[in-house]
Amino acid sequence: MRAAALPVNYGRIGVRDNSGLEDMQDDIKTALTAFRNSIDNLDAAMIYLMAERFKLTQKVGEFKRDHDLPPADPAREQKQIARLRTLAQQSHLDPDFAERLLRFVIDEVIHNHQRIRKA
Amino acid sequence: MRAAALPVNYGRIGVRDNSGLEDMQDDIKTALTAFRNSIDNLDAAMIYLMAERFKLTQKVGEFKRDHDLPPADPAREQKQIARLRTLAQQSHLDPDFAERLLRFVIDEVIHNHQRIRKA
User: Among residues A17, A45, A94, B119, which one has the fewest Cβ atoms lying within 10 Å of its Cβ?
Assistant: First the structure.
């Protein structure tokens, strides 16, 4: 069976990525490109989701500044971590990774809130 | 105007979080709880999305092991970073954050691929 033709135009968003695969057999290349296409779709969703999340936390930051509330809220964070660890278990994601991911995002949010406060 | 009643049951997934807000005015509490509810919804979406992404990269890891391909692929990563930075700009997310987020996720993937290879 002949492998499906691979898209090769790299110049635009949404274009399919087979970079680094030039020397592989066609069937291996095709399989890996299919995986990458799906990963790229999920990553686009992740970016749009994060864009919305940071719009919300930007508003929260301004709200906290206006009402003189502290940027960080350890009690809230503990609830978030526990909840996301449970969701991770249910969806078969490593709960430790879920916790580190949330920590990574929250650290950025707190950094932004501190910046809003100083502005 | 009387503030809307706040949900107070913390024990289950999906329950609304007003922890740390006990001493606030009702209207401030209500506004902050509304923000948190939306953030919690986006975070649940993020976890499910990541669960699917890691299912895919798990398969890619096994595929790479079976075909003796290296766990990391710098050329692919450069394409991913450039694409996500552009998507971040389009959706008004900080491109530097988008790049650091992808790096964070890819590092976990590479770590998992190395583990698959040793198993």
Answer: B119
Is A19 part of a structural domain of the chain?
yes
- Which CATH number fits the domain that encloses residue A86? 1.20.59.10
Could you give the C-alpha distances from B5 to A63, B29, B33, in angstroms and in order? 20, 10, 11
Considering only residues 33 to 92 of chain B, which have any Cβ-Cβ distance to chain A shorter than 8 Å?
Answer: 35-36, 38-40, 42-57, 59-60, 63, 67, 69, 73-76, 78-80, 83-84, 86-88, 91-92
Contact A53, B98 (CB under 8 A): no
Residue B34 lies in a domain: yes
C-alpha–C-alpha distance, residues B37 and B15, integer Å: 9
Distance of CA A31 to the CA centre of its chain: 24
Shared domain check, B81 and B40: no
Domain for residue A9, yes or no? yes
- The count of domains in chain B is 2
Kindly report, residue by residue over B6-15, the tens digit of the pLDDT: 444 434 444 4
Whole-angstrom distance, CA of residue A62 vs CA of residue A110: 12
Residue A54 covered by a domain: no
ipTM over 0.90: no
For residue B76, the enclosing domain spans: 70-119
* B103 and chain A in contact, CB less than 8 A: no
SS3 content of chain A, % helix, strand, coil (to 5): 70, 0, 30
**pLDDT tens-digit profile of B33-70?**
999 999 999 999 999 999 999 999 999 999 999 999 98
